[in-house]
């Protein structure tokens, strides 16, 4: 009788701590990866679209000016 409650007291907290820690680490890692991926994709897409649009506008201007000057 004395060994059985002692076994349960040790086993159950260890199980709960392990599953809760695993759940929290998994959930936080998934959240961070998702949030960072979304942030990086959004930031990179915005940067690339802005940079490419700026580049195209800049690179097309001399060409159009040459056409109009001809």
Keywords:
mainly alpha, single chain, 1 helix, 70 residues
The percentage helix is: over 70%
Strand composition percent = under 5%
What's the helix count?
1
SSE arrangement, N to C: H
Query: Tell me, what's the shape?
Result: rod-shaped
Q: Count the strands?
A: 0
Rg, nearest Å: 30 Å
Q: Span between N and C termini?
A: 102 Å
Q: List the uncertain runs.
A: none
Q: How would a crystallographer describe the biggest sheet?
A: none
The secondary-structure class comes to mainly alpha
Mean pLDDT comes to 73
Q: SSE layout and pairings?
A:
Layout: H1 3-69
Structure overview:
- The chain has 70 residues and is mainly α.
- It contains one helix and no strands.
- The mean pLDDT is 73.
Summarize the entry for a quick read.
The protein has 70 residues and is mainly α.
